[in-house]
What we know:
The complex is a heterotrimer of chains A (255), B (627) and C (396). By secondary structure, chain B is mostly helical. In chain B, 70% of the residues lie in helices and 4% in strands.
Amino acid sequence: MSLLTVRNLSKAYGAVQALADVSFTLAAGESLAMIGPNGAGKSTCFNILNGQVEPDAGAVELEGRSLAGLRAHRIWRLGVGRTFQIAATFGSMTVRENVQMALLSHHRRLGSLFSAASRAYREEADDLLAQVGMREQARRPCAVLAYGDLKRVELAVALAGRPRVLLMDEPTAGMAPAERSELMQLVTGMARKSNIGVLFTEHDMDVVFRHADRVIVLAGGALIAQGLPQDVRMNPRVREVYLGGDLLAEARANA
Amino acid sequence: MSASAAFLQLLNGLASANSLFLVAAGLSLIFGVTRTINFAHGSLYMLGMYCAVTLIARLGGGALGFWASVLLAAAFVGVAGAAIEILVLRRTYAAPDLMQLLATFALVLIIGDFALWAWGPEDILGPRAPGLAGAVTILGREFPQYDLFLIAFGPLVLLALWLLLTRTRWGTLVRAATEDREMAGALGVNHKWLFTGVFALGAFLAGFGGAIEIPREPASLSVALSVIADAFVVVVVGGLGSIPGAFLAALLISEIKALCIGFGQVTVFGTVFSLSKLTLVIEFLVMAVVLVLRPWGLLGRAAAPARGPAVLEPRLPVPSRRALYALAALVAALALVPTLSTGYTLVLLTDILVFALFAVSLHFIAGPGGLHSFGHAAYFGLGAYGAGLLLLKAHAPMELALLLAPFCGALGALLFGWFCVRLSGVYLAMLTLAFAQIAWSIVFQWDALTGGSNGLIGVWPARWLSSQSAYYYLTLATCSAGIALLWRILYSPFGYALRAARDSALRAAAIGIDVRALQWAAFTLAGWFAGLGGALFAFAKGSISPETLAVPRSVDGLVMVLLGGLHTLTGPIWGAALFTWLEDTLARTVNYWHAVIGAVILALVLAFPQGVAGFARQRFARRGDDA
Amino acid sequence: MKFRQLTAALALAALALGSAHAQPIKVGELNSYKVFPAFLEPYKKGWQLALEEINRSGGVLGRKLEVVSRDDGGDPGSAVRVAEELIARDHVAVLMGEFASNIGLAVSDLAARRKIVFVAAEPLTDKLVWQDGNAYTFRLRPSTYTQVAMLVPEAAKLHKKRWALVYPNYEYGQSAAESFKKLLKKAQPDVEFVAEQAPPLGKIDAGSVVQALAEAKPDAIFSALFATDLQKFVRAGNLRGLFKGRAVFDLLGGEPEYLDPLGDETPVGWWVTGYPWNQIRTPEHEKFLKAYEKRWHDYPRVGSVVGYSALHTVADAIRKAGSTDSARLIAALEGLEVQTPFGPIVYRAVDHQSTMGAYVGQLAKKDGKGVMVNWHFADGADYLPSPAEARLLRKQ
Lengths: 255, 627, 396
């Protein structure tokens, strides 16, 4: 049985069909890349998966358990962690406090009224920060971090919940190419080691084809292709709507 | 009510909606573009009335003189609005949100005293409108010509505003800025002059609304406060920033009012129920219902999700050991006061301590919690009434009443909070206000239980606490403990989660925080502590009346928190001390003490936009940030 | 700069207070000057005039009288604090003042607690001397009930059957309406009350209220409206012909504070209680009027008379008591007769209410201004509940 099963997911905002009948699965230990041009429906899909948005139709199951109607915080408790396309951290807190926050939630200590939060799970938080290379910056306020560093903090925060499924919306945005590779290596390694299913979106095709086990392609809200990276790369429809359009234009602009 | 009577009442409602719409449209425009909650809007309306009535007396009562006076008065208020924007508000946009609110609150005080000085205390009833001074017969009833004119006038203003906003370049900029400030910035809109222009237009509309009301009601000092409350309700019910929404809401509220009055007393299942008395609170009932059903008002739209990282709230560092020692020393010093001085010092300090607890409980949800409550006095008042009723009606011992009373505050907060935490921003603020007004009106009306507008007397402490110093010690101990507890909670996992939910509700939910439940709990907790403050207040005064939970007390609380600094820890206690002391001292020594308090607050806002404690922190301590 | 000036001013004020070396008798005066300026500015002028008179004639008990006057902040909580300050810091012998009923009650309760005499000048609520009366509180003005009782005989004389009522929705208006219904029903058992409107204070929707009253087709109307509400109601009623062919009674409409702003709009023929200041020819009033106009270059309002008489009450009580001791002051005040511009009044021992009266008459227009005509003086003593009834009303 796959870890996460997505069946016939649809969502419309007014006249705009953001997602149309999308189905896919994610296996434990697998790194699945979701690609597609802007507005393809990737973020909508993520928002449905973690319970922020209600789908119009379709089902999401985690190990056979339906996630329908559950709010975001409940879905997280079932083991679905995520990072956001635009990094979302707690700006008034330090890097370490952000991770501590997630750990407190994970250990169900949020109702504690009188203990000192700043002393809770410090070592555990620092370990997680060390994993993503942010240990040195643990005491800095999140408000002053570089964008790439925020993304790392987000990853540490997401990992603090010991997720079984990790949803990562553009995890490497704002990083230098070398950093990207390093971070994705870390993520995919972790996925394999801890049997986590990782679903990530990514604009950098290098990252996608180097690190993804499988790729699914969205365009205009519909799933147009899925398969192994090399198969998807060769898929003529994908080349047409995606690689042919955006990427070529980008390549031309860069040249 | 017969059908023809109902029709006439609907016409009355239409006529009343006109001024309400004008003033609300201005408020809505200003909020939409500058994000300023302009408390002084009612004062601008009042200025419009006084200017118009003065000008009419000067220019003569002919049609030309009358209409020229109305327009000139509105224009004058528009210019005054521009001046206010340039001299005051422009300097506050960079400050944390709600600081503009504090500045405009100061303006209310200043403008009110200015009008008292310039026009005297007596109401001034203007003349009827020349040419429209009589009545026409509609369905056998006399109906004022001027009211008919107003019925036609409102839609014309709506049309004019719509044309202005959709057919001119300036209007396009205004709409762009309303919908998306960042984008407007990217389009190269000159913020400064756009803001000034919008504020002037909003003020012009307020002044116009006031001036055009002259044939129907006298210019009076009290109009400022009653108009501002109604205007807020209309703006929020209509949907922030939506001019047609404001029009619709003004109509809706005026019509419901007119019908309530038209029905008068109705008998339901044998009991006489006065719908006429319901007009005391009807607009707030409407607002509460609308916000519960449509969290963004009738025609408002959900705020676009922020594209950039959310507004960054400043850190709330753990207080240093030295700061804690200083606070402990302060409490110790306060404990020594009764040995040095008795009598009035203790009375004033008791008040300050109670208000400090009240302000800290508000700060708990408004600062770190990000839930800007405009109705926090409701819980303070419920605590006070709880204490009074337990003592007087349930004949409970005073000590027991004091122990149980906070739960009345908590219960109120539990009930209202459930609805409030479903909203955010100004909508949440206005829903808290609506609930506070509803609570107030129940207390105000329920003569048999609460003593109605007169309130309850004879709420005195137990014998062993009856000396001033004994009660002072009780207050000092209770308030210090309450404040310490609330601060402790702010640094507990619960408090951190509260800040997390404020910083980014999405992220908070995505790490398993049930944001609503958390905020609901915080709301209730704050209500408990506010109720504790209220109970202490009741026993200190020996009496309670509905003012304890009325809007001005809520506003006082906000002013204390903002004055001290929304994003500091100890700010609320300094704010409470400063405000209470200022009021006490100035009321004694200065005739126009409202204006002086206003001036002091304004000076503080301009000098210390982070609040007094915020300023001190920036200036003297840079710990916490090792960046 | 602003701060420095303020501090300097405060320091000076403190110095001035501290250096007063004579030992005057202090009267603590507090009122909501910022909330009800239209009534309270004349009131202040009234007691200021009285103070000057008292001290010119040698003060009391050979000492000067000093009034320590404070704004009470406009709510009961602040008022109690201000009263505490007057008692504890200024060591005043007597408290005096107040306008709003809820604040009056709060201060009265505090006065009893601190065992200091409180001469309540204005608060109209019946409860102040009856249900919630206490030993330390004395009230000058006729209360809501008494003023209503003054109007009822005139109302009963008209034999109107269908009555409509309109009153501001708080204790004063509610109890005015209730007293009116009770008293009129007693005087004229066949009376019917066909409509009742209770708009919120200061926020009447006059057009709607006027029309709703007209729909009930009453023969007569009783109103307890005043100030802004009254003006809006009168204009809307005039425009819509509500008052045509109907008898109208307004409880406070003849008081210059509320009558003068009506100007040209003054409704002719209304029955009111009030104060026709320029038509009263009694020697005591002529004397007061002359002194007041000379001192302030303004004419007196009801508030002026109240302020003036309140401070004279205090001075007379201290004289009679021969001391500022609270117990002796109470004994002196019980049965004390005071000369006021309205003639002599007596503070009844049974309920501590003075017998101050009011002028009952009809409104008329003269040179575009409202005046009272057909008026007579209604002595409070004739309308107050009998001592036996009053004793029953008082809980203690």
